[in-house]
Amino acid sequence: MSGKFQNLSDYFAACTDDEITLSYSQIEMILGFKLKESAYSHPAYLSNDTTTHGICKSWLDNGYESFNNKLGTQISFRKIKKNVNSVTYWLLPSNEDNYDIEKAYLEYHTIDWHQTDKNVAINDIVYIYETRPQQIVRFKAVVIAVNKKSANKKDLDCYRDSTPFENKSCYMTLKFLGRIEDVNPTMKGLQDAGIPVIRRLMTIPDIALKYIEQCENEDRAAQRFDGSIPSDIPQNHWSFTGYDEEELKERTENEARSLSDEELFEKAKQYGTAKPKERITKAANYVRNTYVAEASKRRANGICQLCGNPAPFTDKNGNPYLESHHIIWLSEGGADVLENTAALCPNCHKKMHIVNDAEDVKKLQNLNKVI
Questions:
Q1: Consecutive H or E run containing 295
Q2: Which end of the chain is more exposed for a tag (fewer CB within 10 A), N or C?
Q3: Tens-digit pLDDT profile for residues 145-160
Protein backbone atom coordinates (compact mmCIF):
# COMPACT_ATOMS: atom_id res chain seq x y z
CA MET A 1 0.00 0.00 0.00
CA SER A 2 1.01 3.64 -0.26
CA GLY A 3 -0.02 6.78 1.56
CA LYS A 4 0.17 7.93 5.15
CA PHE A 5 0.09 4.40 6.60
CA GLN A 6 3.00 3.14 4.47
CA ASN A 7 5.48 3.11 7.37
CA LEU A 8 3.19 0.88 9.41
CA SER A 9 2.67 -1.41 6.43
CA ASP A 10 6.44 -1.68 5.97
CA TYR A 11 6.78 -2.56 9.65
CA PHE A 12 4.37 -5.50 9.37
CA ALA A 13 5.93 -6.61 6.08
CA ALA A 14 9.24 -7.01 7.88
CA CYS A 15 7.76 -8.83 10.91
CA THR A 16 8.37 -12.55 11.35
CA ASP A 17 6.84 -13.11 14.81
CA ASP A 18 3.54 -14.99 15.09
CA GLU A 19 2.25 -12.43 17.58
CA ILE A 20 3.17 -8.79 18.19
CA THR A 21 1.99 -6.37 20.85
CA LEU A 22 2.41 -2.64 20.27
CA SER A 23 1.55 0.26 22.52
CA TYR A 24 -0.38 3.12 21.00
CA SER A 25 2.71 5.31 21.36
CA GLN A 26 4.81 2.75 19.47
CA ILE A 27 2.29 2.72 16.62
CA GLU A 28 2.46 6.52 16.51
CA MET A 29 6.27 6.42 16.45
CA ILE A 30 6.18 4.02 13.48
CA LEU A 31 3.63 6.14 11.65
CA GLY A 32 5.36 9.41 12.43
CA PHE A 33 2.18 11.11 13.61
CA LYS A 34 -0.47 10.78 16.32
CA LEU A 35 -3.50 8.56 15.90
CA LYS A 36 -6.94 10.15 15.70
CA GLU A 37 -8.67 10.74 19.00
CA SER A 38 -11.33 8.17 18.03
CA ALA A 39 -8.65 5.46 18.10
CA TYR A 40 -8.45 5.92 21.86
CA SER A 41 -12.18 5.48 22.45
CA HIS A 42 -13.61 3.39 19.59
CA PRO A 43 -12.38 -0.21 18.99
CA ALA A 44 -13.48 -0.05 15.34
CA TYR A 45 -10.55 2.23 14.42
CA LEU A 46 -7.93 -0.49 14.91
CA SER A 47 -10.21 -3.42 14.05
CA ASN A 48 -9.90 -5.65 10.98
CA ASP A 49 -12.81 -4.04 9.14
CA THR A 50 -11.54 -2.39 5.96
CA THR A 51 -14.83 -0.54 5.52
CA THR A 52 -14.32 1.67 8.58
CA HIS A 53 -10.68 2.82 8.58
CA GLY A 54 -7.93 2.22 6.05
CA ILE A 55 -5.21 1.78 8.65
CA CYS A 56 -6.11 -1.91 9.08
CA LYS A 57 -4.81 -2.69 5.59
CA SER A 58 -1.35 -2.03 7.01
CA TRP A 59 -1.47 -5.38 8.81
CA LEU A 60 -4.13 -7.29 6.86
CA ASP A 61 -2.23 -6.92 3.58
CA ASN A 62 0.81 -8.40 5.32
CA GLY A 63 -0.94 -11.44 6.80
CA TYR A 64 -1.73 -10.17 10.30
CA GLU A 65 -4.97 -9.49 12.18
CA SER A 66 -5.52 -7.31 15.24
CA PHE A 67 -6.96 -8.62 18.52
CA ASN A 68 -7.06 -7.86 22.25
CA ASN A 69 -7.31 -4.10 21.84
CA LYS A 70 -6.86 -2.43 25.22
CA LEU A 71 -8.21 0.97 24.26
CA GLY A 72 -5.72 3.78 24.57
CA THR A 73 -2.86 1.60 25.82
CA GLN A 74 -1.89 -1.34 23.60
CA ILE A 75 -3.11 -3.76 20.94
CA SER A 76 -1.91 -7.17 19.75
CA PHE A 77 -1.53 -8.61 16.26
CA ARG A 78 -1.12 -12.20 15.11
CA LYS A 79 -0.44 -13.97 11.85
CA ILE A 80 -3.59 -15.10 10.09
CA LYS A 81 -3.65 -18.86 9.83
CA LYS A 82 -5.52 -20.55 7.04
CA ASN A 83 -8.21 -22.95 8.16
CA VAL A 84 -8.29 -26.68 7.42
CA ASN A 85 -8.21 -27.45 3.69
CA SER A 86 -7.48 -23.75 3.04
CA VAL A 87 -11.11 -22.87 3.60
CA THR A 88 -11.74 -19.26 4.62
CA TYR A 89 -14.71 -18.34 6.79
CA TRP A 90 -16.61 -15.15 6.04
CA LEU A 91 -19.27 -13.05 7.73
CA LEU A 92 -21.85 -11.42 5.47
CA PRO A 93 -24.42 -8.85 6.69
CA SER A 94 -27.97 -8.94 5.35
CA ASN A 95 -30.42 -6.11 5.97
CA GLU A 96 -34.08 -7.14 6.00
CA ASP A 97 -35.04 -3.67 4.76
CA ASN A 98 -33.20 -4.47 1.53
CA TYR A 99 -33.44 -8.27 1.18
CA ASP A 100 -35.72 -10.99 2.56
CA ILE A 101 -33.07 -13.59 3.46
CA GLU A 102 -35.66 -15.81 5.19
CA LYS A 103 -37.71 -16.05 1.99
CA ALA A 104 -34.55 -16.76 -0.03
CA TYR A 105 -33.60 -19.57 2.35
CA LEU A 106 -37.03 -21.19 2.22
CA GLU A 107 -37.58 -20.90 -1.54
CA TYR A 108 -34.13 -21.12 -3.17
CA HIS A 109 -31.23 -23.51 -2.67
CA THR A 110 -28.74 -21.03 -4.11
CA ILE A 111 -28.54 -17.25 -4.42
CA ASP A 112 -26.15 -14.83 -6.11
CA TRP A 113 -24.64 -12.05 -4.01
CA HIS A 114 -22.45 -9.06 -4.68
CA GLN A 115 -18.83 -10.22 -4.20
CA THR A 116 -16.92 -7.40 -2.56
CA ASP A 117 -13.69 -9.28 -1.88
CA LYS A 118 -11.57 -10.88 -4.61
CA ASN A 119 -10.16 -13.41 -2.14
CA VAL A 120 -13.40 -15.35 -1.78
CA ALA A 121 -12.88 -18.89 -3.12
CA ILE A 122 -15.03 -21.87 -3.98
CA ASN A 123 -15.81 -24.03 -0.90
CA ASP A 124 -15.33 -21.09 1.47
CA ILE A 125 -17.95 -20.90 4.20
CA VAL A 126 -20.16 -17.82 4.64
CA TYR A 127 -22.15 -17.12 7.79
CA ILE A 128 -24.96 -14.65 7.16
CA TYR A 129 -25.55 -12.04 9.85
CA GLU A 130 -28.97 -10.39 10.10
CA THR A 131 -28.60 -6.72 10.97
CA ARG A 132 -30.99 -4.70 13.12
CA PRO A 133 -33.34 -5.46 14.69
CA GLN A 134 -32.28 -9.14 14.98
CA GLN A 135 -28.49 -8.67 15.15
CA ILE A 136 -27.75 -12.41 15.05
CA VAL A 137 -25.98 -14.91 12.82
CA ARG A 138 -28.78 -17.02 11.35
CA PHE A 139 -27.71 -18.74 8.12
CA LYS A 140 -24.75 -20.76 6.87
CA ALA A 141 -23.78 -21.16 3.21
CA VAL A 142 -20.96 -22.48 1.05
CA VAL A 143 -19.48 -20.63 -1.92
CA ILE A 144 -19.97 -22.62 -5.13
CA ALA A 145 -19.04 -19.95 -7.72
CA VAL A 146 -16.99 -16.74 -7.68
CA ASN A 147 -16.07 -13.76 -9.85
CA LYS A 148 -19.24 -13.95 -11.96
CA LYS A 149 -19.86 -11.02 -14.29
CA SER A 150 -23.64 -11.36 -14.11
CA ALA A 151 -26.09 -12.73 -11.57
CA ASN A 152 -28.93 -15.21 -11.69
CA LYS A 153 -31.97 -13.09 -10.96
CA LYS A 154 -34.33 -15.84 -9.81
CA ASP A 155 -34.50 -14.33 -6.31
CA LEU A 156 -35.39 -10.79 -7.36
CA ASP A 157 -38.66 -11.17 -5.48
CA CYS A 158 -36.58 -11.20 -2.28
CA TYR A 159 -35.29 -7.68 -2.92
CA ARG A 160 -37.15 -4.62 -1.71
CA ASP A 161 -35.30 -2.69 -4.43
CA SER A 162 -33.24 -4.71 -6.92
CA THR A 163 -31.73 -1.72 -8.72
CA PRO A 164 -28.53 -1.47 -6.58
CA PHE A 165 -28.05 -5.23 -6.91
CA GLU A 166 -28.26 -5.14 -10.72
CA ASN A 167 -25.55 -2.48 -10.98
CA LYS A 168 -22.76 -4.59 -9.40
CA SER A 169 -19.84 -5.91 -11.47
CA CYS A 170 -18.86 -9.07 -9.59
CA TYR A 171 -20.99 -11.78 -8.00
CA MET A 172 -20.59 -15.03 -6.08
CA THR A 173 -23.05 -17.91 -5.75
CA LEU A 174 -23.95 -19.17 -2.27
CA LYS A 175 -25.58 -22.51 -1.52
CA PHE A 176 -27.47 -22.60 1.75
CA LEU A 177 -26.27 -25.28 4.16
CA GLY A 178 -28.63 -24.54 7.04
CA ARG A 179 -29.66 -22.11 9.71
CA ILE A 180 -29.19 -21.72 13.45
CA GLU A 181 -32.50 -21.52 15.27
CA ASP A 182 -32.07 -21.37 19.03
CA VAL A 183 -28.46 -20.66 19.99
CA ASN A 184 -27.65 -17.82 17.62
CA PRO A 185 -24.35 -15.93 17.76
CA THR A 186 -25.22 -12.36 18.76
CA MET A 187 -23.68 -8.99 17.98
CA LYS A 188 -22.64 -8.68 21.62
CA GLY A 189 -20.89 -12.06 21.43
CA LEU A 190 -19.17 -11.12 18.18
CA GLN A 191 -18.00 -7.82 19.69
CA ASP A 192 -16.57 -9.68 22.67
CA ALA A 193 -14.78 -11.93 20.16
CA GLY A 194 -13.15 -8.99 18.35
CA ILE A 195 -15.66 -7.91 15.68
CA PRO A 196 -16.85 -4.38 16.57
CA VAL A 197 -18.98 -3.77 13.45
CA ILE A 198 -20.23 -5.75 10.43
CA ARG A 199 -20.79 -3.55 7.41
CA ARG A 200 -19.82 -5.75 4.50
CA LEU A 201 -18.35 -9.16 3.68
CA MET A 202 -15.40 -9.80 6.01
CA THR A 203 -13.19 -12.67 7.14
CA ILE A 204 -13.91 -14.10 10.59
CA PRO A 205 -11.09 -13.95 13.17
CA ASP A 206 -10.25 -17.26 14.89
CA ILE A 207 -11.77 -16.27 18.25
CA ALA A 208 -15.03 -15.17 16.63
CA LEU A 209 -15.15 -18.32 14.49
CA LYS A 210 -14.78 -20.50 17.59
CA TYR A 211 -17.68 -18.58 19.19
CA ILE A 212 -19.90 -19.06 16.12
CA GLU A 213 -19.04 -22.76 15.84
CA GLN A 214 -19.72 -23.32 19.54
CA CYS A 215 -23.17 -21.75 19.15
CA GLU A 216 -23.74 -23.88 16.08
CA ASN A 217 -22.66 -27.02 17.92
CA GLU A 218 -25.02 -26.29 20.82
CA ASP A 219 -27.98 -25.52 18.61
CA ARG A 220 -30.60 -28.30 18.58
CA ALA A 221 -33.12 -26.99 16.09
CA ALA A 222 -31.11 -26.13 12.97
CA GLN A 223 -32.67 -26.96 9.61
CA ARG A 224 -31.00 -28.08 6.39
CA PHE A 225 -32.24 -28.99 2.96
CA ASP A 226 -33.17 -32.59 2.26
CA GLY A 227 -31.12 -34.56 -0.22
CA SER A 228 -27.60 -35.86 -0.49
CA ILE A 229 -24.52 -33.74 0.10
CA PRO A 230 -22.98 -32.60 -3.21
CA SER A 231 -19.70 -34.41 -3.85
CA ASP A 232 -17.84 -31.16 -4.44
CA ILE A 233 -18.62 -29.82 -0.96
CA PRO A 234 -16.44 -31.11 1.90
CA GLN A 235 -18.40 -33.35 4.27
CA ASN A 236 -17.32 -31.43 7.35
CA HIS A 237 -19.19 -28.35 6.10
CA TRP A 238 -22.46 -30.11 6.89
CA SER A 239 -23.82 -30.69 10.37
CA PHE A 240 -26.31 -33.32 11.47
CA THR A 241 -29.39 -31.11 11.56
CA GLY A 242 -33.06 -31.35 10.64
CA TYR A 243 -33.69 -34.53 12.66
CA ASP A 244 -35.89 -35.06 15.69
CA GLU A 245 -34.13 -34.92 19.02
CA GLU A 246 -33.68 -38.66 19.56
CA GLU A 247 -32.37 -39.22 16.03
CA LEU A 248 -30.01 -36.27 16.39
CA LYS A 249 -28.75 -37.61 19.71
CA GLU A 250 -28.13 -41.06 18.19
CA ARG A 251 -26.26 -39.62 15.21
CA THR A 252 -24.03 -37.39 17.35
CA GLU A 253 -23.32 -40.24 19.77
CA ASN A 254 -22.31 -42.45 16.83
CA GLU A 255 -20.05 -39.68 15.57
CA ALA A 256 -18.43 -39.29 19.00
CA ARG A 257 -17.79 -43.05 19.21
CA SER A 258 -16.13 -42.99 15.79
CA LEU A 259 -13.53 -40.41 16.83
CA SER A 260 -9.99 -41.28 17.84
CA ASP A 261 -9.02 -40.72 21.48
CA GLU A 262 -7.14 -37.55 20.54
CA GLU A 263 -10.05 -36.15 18.51
CA LEU A 264 -12.63 -37.05 21.13
CA PHE A 265 -10.83 -35.54 24.12
CA GLU A 266 -10.02 -32.41 22.09
CA LYS A 267 -13.73 -31.96 21.26
CA ALA A 268 -14.70 -32.64 24.87
CA LYS A 269 -12.28 -29.92 25.95
CA GLN A 270 -13.38 -27.53 23.19
CA TYR A 271 -17.14 -27.86 23.59
CA GLY A 272 -17.46 -28.40 27.34
CA THR A 273 -19.15 -25.46 28.99
CA ALA A 274 -19.43 -24.19 32.55
CA LYS A 275 -22.96 -22.96 31.82
CA PRO A 276 -24.93 -25.62 29.91
CA LYS A 277 -28.00 -24.44 28.03
CA GLU A 278 -31.37 -25.15 29.63
CA ARG A 279 -34.19 -26.72 27.60
CA ILE A 280 -37.46 -25.76 29.29
CA THR A 281 -40.28 -28.34 29.25
CA LYS A 282 -42.31 -29.07 32.37
CA ALA A 283 -39.01 -28.91 34.21
CA ALA A 284 -35.55 -27.61 33.33
CA ASN A 285 -33.46 -30.13 31.40
CA TYR A 286 -29.85 -29.47 30.47
CA VAL A 287 -28.33 -30.08 27.06
CA ARG A 288 -25.42 -32.42 27.81
CA ASN A 289 -22.48 -32.42 25.46
CA THR A 290 -22.08 -35.68 23.54
CA TYR A 291 -18.29 -35.47 23.32
CA VAL A 292 -17.88 -34.95 27.07
CA ALA A 293 -20.18 -37.90 27.83
CA GLU A 294 -18.45 -40.28 25.42
CA ALA A 295 -14.97 -39.22 26.56
CA SER A 296 -15.97 -39.88 30.16
CA LYS A 297 -17.12 -43.41 29.36
CA ARG A 298 -14.11 -44.20 27.19
CA ARG A 299 -11.76 -42.99 29.91
CA ALA A 300 -13.30 -45.52 32.35
CA ASN A 301 -12.42 -48.39 29.99
CA GLY A 302 -15.50 -50.44 30.89
CA ILE A 303 -15.10 -50.17 34.69
CA CYS A 304 -17.56 -48.33 36.93
CA GLN A 305 -15.62 -45.56 38.62
CA LEU A 306 -17.61 -45.85 41.85
CA CYS A 307 -17.96 -49.57 42.65
CA GLY A 308 -14.98 -50.68 40.55
CA ASN A 309 -16.89 -53.50 38.85
CA PRO A 310 -17.03 -54.14 35.09
CA ALA A 311 -20.03 -52.79 33.20
CA PRO A 312 -22.98 -55.15 33.82
CA PHE A 313 -23.68 -55.70 30.11
CA THR A 314 -22.75 -54.47 26.64
CA ASP A 315 -24.96 -52.35 24.44
CA LYS A 316 -26.23 -53.37 21.01
CA ASN A 317 -22.92 -52.24 19.50
CA GLY A 318 -20.89 -54.43 21.84
CA ASN A 319 -19.63 -51.56 24.03
CA PRO A 320 -19.54 -51.88 27.85
CA TYR A 321 -22.64 -50.10 29.12
CA LEU A 322 -21.81 -47.27 31.51
CA GLU A 323 -23.59 -43.97 32.06
CA SER A 324 -21.99 -40.54 32.23
CA HIS A 325 -22.71 -38.80 35.55
CA HIS A 326 -22.05 -35.19 36.55
CA ILE A 327 -20.38 -35.30 39.96
CA ILE A 328 -21.71 -31.84 40.80
CA TRP A 329 -25.15 -31.91 39.23
CA LEU A 330 -25.84 -29.44 36.42
CA SER A 331 -28.93 -28.29 38.31
CA GLU A 332 -26.62 -27.36 41.19
CA GLY A 333 -24.34 -25.29 38.96
CA GLY A 334 -21.95 -28.06 37.92
CA ALA A 335 -20.01 -27.68 34.68
CA ASP A 336 -20.50 -29.94 31.66
CA VAL A 337 -16.79 -30.70 31.39
CA LEU A 338 -14.71 -33.86 31.59
CA GLU A 339 -13.33 -32.98 35.02
CA ASN A 340 -16.87 -33.01 36.46
CA THR A 341 -17.98 -36.32 34.95
CA ALA A 342 -17.63 -39.97 35.90
CA ALA A 343 -18.68 -43.17 34.12
CA LEU A 344 -20.93 -45.29 36.35
CA CYS A 345 -22.82 -48.55 36.08
CA PRO A 346 -26.62 -48.03 36.05
CA ASN A 347 -26.91 -49.12 39.69
CA CYS A 348 -24.28 -46.65 40.95
CA HIS A 349 -25.67 -43.92 38.75
CA LYS A 350 -29.12 -44.35 40.27
CA LYS A 351 -27.53 -44.43 43.73
CA MET A 352 -25.81 -41.09 43.12
CA HIS A 353 -29.10 -39.47 42.10
CA ILE A 354 -31.02 -40.87 45.07
CA VAL A 355 -28.43 -40.89 47.87
CA ASN A 356 -25.62 -38.68 46.53
CA ASP A 357 -23.44 -39.63 49.49
CA ALA A 358 -20.78 -37.03 50.26
CA GLU A 359 -18.05 -39.70 50.50
CA ASP A 360 -18.97 -41.03 47.06
CA VAL A 361 -18.84 -37.50 45.63
CA LYS A 362 -15.43 -36.97 47.19
CA LYS A 363 -14.20 -40.33 45.86
CA LEU A 364 -15.18 -39.44 42.28
CA GLN A 365 -13.67 -35.97 42.55
CA ASN A 366 -10.39 -37.33 43.88
CA LEU A 367 -10.33 -40.00 41.16
CA ASN A 368 -10.61 -37.31 38.50
CA LYS A 369 -7.66 -35.45 40.03
CA VAL A 370 -5.53 -38.57 39.54
CA ILE A 371 -6.65 -39.39 35.99
A1: helix 290-300
A2: C
A3: 888 888 888 888 888 8
